[in-house]
Amino acid sequence: MKYLATLATAAVMLLSGCATTIHSNVTAFNDWPADIQDKTYAFEAPQGAEDTLEYRNYQVLVANQLGQLGFHQAAEGQQPKLLVGMKYFTIDHPVRVLQEDPFGGPYWGPGYYGRWGYSRWGYRPYFYDPYRFGPTYAEERIKHQYQRQLRVTINSTSGRKLYDVTVQNTSAVQATPHVMPALVQSAFTGFPGQNGVPRTIDVTIDPKTETLQAANPAPKAN
Question: Which of 18, 97, 102, 125 is most exposed by smallest CB count within 10 Å?
Answer without folding.
Answer: 18
